Amino acid sequence: MRRLAPLVLLWLALVGAAAPQVPGLVPDVSAREVQIRTSFTGAQLLLFGAILYPGGEVPAEPAEIAVVLRGPAEPLLIREKEKIAGIWMNAQSHRFRSVPGFYAVASSAPLETLIDERTAAIYELGLDNLQLSPGPGHAAATTRRFEAGLIERRRREGLYAAYPQGVEISDRVLYRARIPIPSRVPVGTYTAETFLISDGRVLAVATREVEIGKTGFERFVALAAQRRPFFYGLAAIAVSLFLGWFAAFIFARRV
């Protein structure tokens, strides 16, 4: 065994030297925590970092970058309204098991020019490749219609977005991307993923976490609604009755 040990070490060294070296990523975010207060009107999160090439030599055709900021996922029930006998009513519904509350993707070039559809689907790169885990019981065409409607609605709300030229690469090594965060962003743990892409392949993936949460009075109200829903409901009813009585009192005095 002692005679074999040097041979094993030599073999491992030769294998390591012969193995192809691929670039790596050193990512970071401008803020690990985003606090939502009463005056919160939105923010911008900066995703930045560096590309580490083997030996420090940048190739003639350097790699490209795509970044994804994804919010917490939750099950969601979507209802479709139709006009029946002149009245808008809920006609069909579809349930999804895992819907990101926020999704934004930015890349140094349009994704369709960087990777093929199969690779984009594997890594969920792009709004058309989101895996929403639809529930059973619906035809594929119906599922696609509900998925398209959900994505379009969240795009209008600013919760889903794509920036085909949103990543800037400096000196072929440093990169940065700014992702706008709307005021209606859901709270929770977010993942900031960075993808290193070259020749249509994803060479490396790096992830950082970002916490978006409420603070101050907003945090107190949110915790009260989660931990004491019964008393929170009573308080909400009491506040509504008081405001209604106060408005009627003021109106009566003016009349």
Annotated CATH homologous superfamily of the largest domain: Macroglobulin (MG2) domain
**Helix-residue proportion:** 25-40%
Tally of DSSP helical segments = 6
Q: What's the structural domain tally?
A: 2
CATH topology of the largest domain: Immunoglobulin-like
- H/E element order: HEEEEEEEHHHEEEEEHH
Radius of gyration: 25 Å
Describe the main β-sheet briefly. Answer: 6 strands, mixed
Return the average pLDDT rounded to an integer: 81
Would you report the number of β strands?
A: 12
Identify the overall geometry.
globular
Segments where pLDDT lies below 50 for 5+ residues? 4-19, 219-224
Notes on the protein architecture:
- A hairpin with a 3-residue loop joins strand 9 (about 165-170) and strand 10.
- The chain has helices at about 5-20, 110-115, 115-125, 140-155, 215-225, 230-255; strands at about 25-30, 35, 45-50, 65-70, 75-85, 85-100, 105, 160-165, 165-170, 175-180, 190-200, 200-215.
- The radius of gyration is 25 Å and the shape is globular.
- The chain starts with a helix and ends with a helix.
- It folds into two domains: about 20-215, Macroglobulin (MG2) domain (Immunoglobulin-like, Sandwich), CATH 2.60.40; about 215-245, no CATH class.
- The chain has a six-stranded mixed sheet with strand order 2-12-11-4-7-8.
- With about 260 residues, it is an alpha+beta fold.
- The model is unreliable at about 5-20 and about 220-225 (pLDDT under 50).
